[in-house]
Amino acid sequence: MTTAADEEDAQPPDDESQPAFAERRNPRLAEHEAPYFSLTPDLLLDAIESTGLHCDGRVLQLNSFENRVFQIGLESGEYVVAKFYRPERWSDAQILEEHAFTAELAAHEIPVVAPMQIDGASLHQFGKFRLALYPRRGGRAPELDDPKTLEWIGRFIGRIHALGAVKPFALRPTLDVENFGEEPRRWLLEHHAIPDALRAAWIAAIGQSLDLITPERFRARHWAGYAQSMSTGQTRYGHTLLRVPALH
């Protein structure tokens, strides 16, 4: 039989030594708050209004893997798209380098959506969050079975690469097997992040995965062909098609 005194004794003491419920469920929160833990709807709207825009309360979260992206209604009846960057993922200089390239693409009539310039700035700070605002633009899936559509896409990809080759990125890492495959693999192994019981199987599996992107024996030739294509804008050596071997 449980008495009222027993129930009172069973209650945890009301002091600061007791961790919060979220911290008890996930001890890591006690040391490192989740990146978007404090991005509440109120803070979201306050951040956007700090740029001088006036929201009407309409918020629709859009798909995004790394950042947080929202469609925001304005009092004028229009919409903007707000992109909140993951804290500590990129530096301000890296983000602004991306913004500058996007603006340059738009200036060359390549169909991209560049961030809005507000008071001469495309990147804004509100508390610990950095955000950029974009005009809302509709889109549709291309008809990939149509050769003319593929040709149109190819021309734009070529123009993007040609413009990017004029002034390569200085601050953002290259998206290649070394930076996003080999280097993380070495770090995980060197820091013993893989349990010993899984280590051999993991090494075999990650090696097979990287070979699906570009087999190791072909990587030097792959990047030589890529560099040649990007520097000349051509995909042929004389009458021979420039081949960049890989498994697909």
Descriptive overview:
This protein is α+β, with helices and mostly antiparallel strands and 248 residues long. The protein contains 8 helices and 7 strands. A hairpin with a 2-residue loop joins strand 4 (124-126) and strand 5.
Number of strands: 7
Strand content: 5-15%
Q: What are the secondary-structure elements, in order, as H or E?
A: HHHEEEHEEHHHHEE
Biggest sheet: strand arrangement: 1-2-3-5-4
**End-to-end distance:** 69 Å
What is the radius of gyration computed over CA atoms, rounded to a whole number of angstroms? 25 Å
- Number of helical segments with 4 or more residues: 8
Helix coverage percent of residues?
A: 40-55%
- The dominant shape is globular
Low-confidence regions = 4-30, 237-248
User: Which class do the helix and strand fractions yield?
Assistant: alpha+beta
What value does the average pLDDT take?
A: 81
Oligomer class: single chain
Main pleated sheet: 5 strands, antiparallel
Summed up:
The protein has eight helices and seven strands. The chain has 248 residues and is α+β, with helices and mostly antiparallel strands.
Note the main attributes of this structure.
248 residues, alpha+beta, 5-stranded antiparallel sheet, 14% strand, globular
Topology of this structure?
Blueprint: H1 4-10, H2 21-25, H3 41-49, E1 55-62, E2 68-74, E3 79-84, H4 92-107, E4 124-126, E5 129-135, H5 147-166, H6 177-190, H7 196-213, H8 219-232, E6 236-237, E7 240-241
Antiparallel strand pairs: 1-2, 2-3, 3-5, 4-5, 6-7
Helix pairs in contact: 6-7
